[in-house]
Amino acid sequence: MSQLTAPTHTVVDNIPLWLRIREIMKEQGSSYSLTAMAGRLGMSRETLRLMLSGEREIYSFELEKITQDLKIPLARLLQEDIVELKPAYAILIDQGRLEEAMELAKYRESIAIGLSEKVFSSASVAWVYFWKEEMDTAKGIIHEALAAAEEVNKKYAFQGVLTRVFVVFLNIYTHTEELDKVLGIVERLKPLLHSDPINMGVLYVALAKMKYASFENAEAKMYMYKCLELFIECANRDRIGRAYINTAIAEYADRNYEQAKELLETGKEYWENDKVRLLGLKELAKTHLKLREFQAAESLIRTALRTESFEQLMDIKASLIILLSRAAGSTSYAESVAMNLRYPKQARYHAYRHLTLVNKQEKFLRRGKSAQGKSQGRIPTKRFPLDKNF
């Protein structure tokens, strides 16, 4: 780019400069029509029209006149004033400092001008709500942003803003497992994510869940492995840790318990997020139980209950305690969950269900033993899916 030529895009959101100027003009009102503005700038309306439709380059001296006419600093127009916010925001999210990340996102939203920048900033706010797991709020914001992004893309063919909104939309609805919402954008997303391995991986997770819903388990597991490969390539530790858990769950569902255990043991080093670590430990305990490694399961669960913080994660704590009942061969642990109102209703239901199944199994086995003296036939042992619900 020549020093005489102005930048073609903004430095943070990569918004085409001509589009950025047009959107700000639109917000400024009728005094910023092409005719009125061309008159103040001392150029023909046609020249300005060509500049602001991307058909003619904008020179630096022309951009300076435009910023003066719009009464906006050049740094604000080019987004140079927020260039340091983007990496700081990403670091805060990676570190789990979500309140600080929200402050940055809200600040950016407060200074945004032009429709495209406002959509990008709204997506940033929705992204923080996603990580805070305030999904209803995140959904409300991203739906408004999606409508605006569709408008920009339809009118000006700017896909960048639509891609960003789609990515947040994809993550939210994959997490909440509202896969019908994701299905509506899958075909539009695929070509947009070829150079974005992290979000292509998220798309694979969504596709895997859709395959599970239609009982196509082999294809679902294939997508989970594809996701794991992508995340390993892009070296995102949090995503890698989650992918190992998802892939292990797929192997567990296929009764490949040794393979599931191996994946979880490999993924342990990536479980830096508290919730991810606890979910991984829960899945590892389940594989130990399936492999009849009861002492290993009991040791793992007791260590986790003693050393981990379960604030805001009482559902996972309840699941571990119910699994401890199986590992230790005592119903007292599941009873402690069932009778404690501090645990979520769903967790208490799972505890009651576990106790009910254990009771039924014991009654069945007792009945079988008492009938052995009366019959020479052999009563088969019935298996109950004690870990089906957690």
User: Compute the gyration radius: what is it?
Assistant: 28 Å
What is the residue-averaged pLDDT? 90
CATH architecture of the largest domain: Alpha Horseshoe
Integer tally of domains: 4
Overall shape: elongated
SS-derived structural category: mainly alpha
Assembly category = single chain
Low-confidence stretches: 381-390
Protein name: HTH cro/C1-type domain-containing protein
Region (Disordered): 367-390
Domain HTH cro/C1-type: 21-85
GO molecular function, one term: DNA binding
Question: What's the structural blueprint in terms of helices and strands?
Answer:
Blueprint: H1 17-28, H2 34-41, H3 45-51, H4 60-70, H5 74-77, H6 85-94, H7 98-111, H8 115-131, H9 135-156, H10 159-175, H11 179-183, H12 186-189, H13 197-213, H14 217-234, H15 237-253, H16 257-267, H17 274-290, H18 294-307, H19 314-328, H20 332-338, H21 345-371
Describe the structure.
The chain has four domains: 17-78, 434 Repressor (Amino-terminal Domain) (Orthogonal Bundle), CATH 1.10.260.40; 84-177, Alpha Horseshoe (Serine Threonine Protein Phosphatase 5, Tetratricopeptide repeat), CATH 1.25.40; 193-272, Serine Threonine Protein Phosphatase 5, Tetratricopeptide repeat, CATH 1.25.40; 288-369 and 380-390. The chain has 21 helices and no strands. It has helices at residues 17-28, 34-41, 45-51, 60-70, 74-77, 85-94, 98-111, 115-131, 135-156, 159-175, 179-183, 186-189, 197-213, 217-234, 237-253, 257-267, 274-290, 294-307, 314-328, 332-338, 345-371. Helix 16 packs antiparallel against helix 17 (274-290). It starts with 16 loop residues before the first helix and ends in a 19-residue tail after the last helix. Residues 381-390 have low confidence and may be disordered. Residues 21-85 form the HTH cro/C1-type domain. Residues 367-390 are annotated as: Disordered.
